[in-house]
Amino acid sequence: MKMENNIKRIGDVVKSVANQLGGRRVSRLYTRLMNRIEVLPDDKFAYLMLTPAFILMTIIAFWPITYTLQMSVREDHDIETVGEFVGLENYYKILTNDANLLAPFFDITQPFYSSLTVTIIITIGAVVLSMVLGFAQALILNETFKGQSVMRVIVILPWAVPIVIQGMIFRLMFTPGAGVGVEWLDFLGFANATSPLAYSRESTFIVILAEAWKHSAFVAIILLAGLQSINRELYKVADVAGASRWQRFKMITFPLIIPAIFVALIFRTIESMRIYGTVVAVSGCGDVTVLTCSVINEFSRHNYGTSSAVAVILALIIASIVAVYLTRFAQRGGISQ
């Protein structure tokens, strides 16, 4: 009923504007259009409202994507000129390690695959940790207690911190003599805990912590929205049936929050695969060489063809991962939910 009233209100406004601008003919056209919109099902009306945003995003993204694809199949050249067409040669050099990419110092013989390995390790670590922390935060914020509003602000604060400041915080935390992070690494058994930022393994671990700390707030917001959409009557029925807190979580909370988990998982995976700012702010690309570092490095060396090819490969990897997520989501009946 509320949606129908909103549609009618929009139709009245459009009709009034049409009368002022185009007269009766335009008014009749808009009237017929509004009449058709009024009878649309809720799902189709939602798609209709989202269409302008999708069109705008497509227009904005079309040129950069097209130009990147064009440069990836041409030889390295000045950005203001068009290089000779070389087909898939840039991709072949990258995948066969013939391209002179920025390489992790622990394996300079396979720069692309080593950088991909580092990227995947950071993605898995940061996504898992941020999902666990975010889920815990969402469960706490979903409870009613004194100071709930203040707690929500505190949880969201890390997400609002700029990446540079985030990097400085964690860099200071793990600087010998300045932060407590060195003691933590020593307690966890890291071999180079006394100077962690000088070594690849320790620096990668610090980057994972920084990513999880910042983006767990985003996960908490998404999952909290999912938790608050659950019908409270279900919990009342469970209480009457004598269900424990664990049984309520297992039978009600977790199954109904799965769609929100998939949404958060997709966004976090995309962000972690594209990580760059946190790496540069915490340790630099020399110690933690992710694929985005290779893209930026090749671009700064005016190797625009190679840089574009790495960017396209990274985009295809991300698209493949998202496709797997969406397939699993659809198989679980998430689309219908």
Automatic annotation (TrEMBL):
<feature type="transmembrane region" description="Helical">
    <location>
        <begin position="45"/>
        <end position="65"/>
    </location>
</feature>
<comment type="similarity">
    <text>Belongs to the binding-protein-dependent transport system permease family.</text>
</comment>
<feature type="transmembrane region" description="Helical">
    <location>
        <begin position="205"/>
        <end position="227"/>
    </location>
</feature>
<keyword id="KW-0813">Transport</keyword>
<keyword id="KW-0472">Membrane</keyword>
<dbReference type="InterPro" id="IPR000515">
    <property type="entry name" value="MetI-like"/>
</dbReference>
<keyword id="KW-0812">Transmembrane</keyword>
<feature type="transmembrane region" description="Helical">
    <location>
        <begin position="308"/>
        <end position="327"/>
    </location>
</feature>
<feature type="transmembrane region" description="Helical">
    <location>
        <begin position="248"/>
        <end position="267"/>
    </location>
</feature>
<keyword id="KW-1003">Cell membrane</keyword>
<feature type="domain" description="ABC transmembrane type-1">
    <location>
        <begin position="116"/>
        <end position="325"/>
    </location>
</feature>
<protein>
    <submittedName>
        <fullName>Sugar ABC transporter permease</fullName>
    </submittedName>
</protein>
<feature type="transmembrane region" description="Helical">
    <location>
        <begin position="273"/>
        <end position="296"/>
    </location>
</feature>
<keyword id="KW-1133">Transmembrane helix</keyword>
<dbReference type="InterPro" id="IPR035906">
    <property type="entry name" value="MetI-like_sf"/>
</dbReference>
<dbReference type="Pfam" id="PF00528">
    <property type="entry name" value="BPD_transp_1"/>
</dbReference>
<dbReference type="GO" id="GO:0055085">
    <property type="term" value="P:transmembrane transport"/>
</dbReference>
<feature type="transmembrane region" description="Helical">
    <location>
        <begin position="153"/>
        <end position="174"/>
    </location>
</feature>
<feature type="transmembrane region" description="Helical">
    <location>
        <begin position="112"/>
        <end position="141"/>
    </location>
</feature>
<dbReference type="GO" id="GO:0005886">
    <property type="term" value="C:plasma membrane"/>
</dbReference>
